[in-house]
Amino acid sequence: MKKITILLVLFITVGLSAQNMETYIYSIKGQDTLRLDVFTPENIKKSDSLPVLLWMHGGGFSGSHRAYPDDQNLVKYAAKEQNYIGVSISYRLLRKNTATGFGCDCTKDEKMETFKQAAIDYLDAAKFLVDRAKTLQIDPTKIIAGGSSAGAEGILNAVFMKDYFVTDKDAYNNVKFAGLLSCAGAMVDARYITEENAIPAVLYHGTEDQLVPFGSASHHLCDPKRDGYFILDGSGIIAEKLEDFDTSYYFNIVKGGRHEIARIPIEEMDTIFNFFERAVINDEVIQTKIIKTTE
What we know:
By secondary structure, this protein is of the alpha/beta class. It has helices spanning 69-82, 108-131, 133-136, 150-160, 162-165, 235-244, 269-281, and strands at residues 8-13, 19-29, 32-41, 50-56, 85-89, 138-148, 179-183, 186-187, 201-206, 216-218, 231-234, 249-255, 287-293. The strands form two sheets. A ten-stranded mixed beta sheet has the order 1-2-3-5-4-6-7-9-12-13, with helices on both faces. A three-stranded antiparallel beta sheet has the order 8-11-10. Helix 2 packs across helix 4 (150-160). The chain is globular. The model is unreliable at 1-17 (pLDDT under 50). Pfam families: COesterase (PF00135). Keywords: Hydrolase. This is Carboxylesterase family protein.
């Protein structure tokens, strides 16, 4: 793997949005040049060290990109409205242009390798930020991991299953997450959530999600006889584990909701960031379940 130091690719002021954006290469892996966009509040002071929202887009590990409007608008919002550093990353789309995609024809081993490499890419992006915390004016103790759909799977595995997926754990000793935001996400095995690694979480999920299970069920609802049969633990199981460890969570349950709940709930961001203010910044213990139904 080719390692590089910080490389400034782009610097612009984003229209009237009251934040600045810089793009960096955080890693080169084979044919993939992985970049991240860093949005900084326009009025940031030289002495500031700000919390971070580190975002991983969805797309089934085969499509979309870090600058997709919904994803970019979220990190821009974090910088403009919440005085965070907002970061959106690219990562290796290992199922792009593959014959089996990421559904029931994709083998369990291929799925596991995809989850592993996505988690490692995410950890590498986080390490890039932490290693440059002073330059980028971030508080490395206040990194919120966030993602939707495939991105939510990536961040959940990175946050809770680092010990399972990563061989060189020492490389990430300084990478720690203070909270997480998952939109329709699941992880390989929720038993890896422990009292030591449990962190405040915002979880959105539909109970009838047909791609990423709400509870403990097969990925893509694959039949046990299919190559892609692979049990994952979704938001319902994750919330139970956090409750067991008296860890804060804000769990938004949509009864009857399907995978459309992976959509970024931009209209509820004030509530979400208020939760992080209380649970992460002020260290309060808050456990909230919001139950909605589809219309």
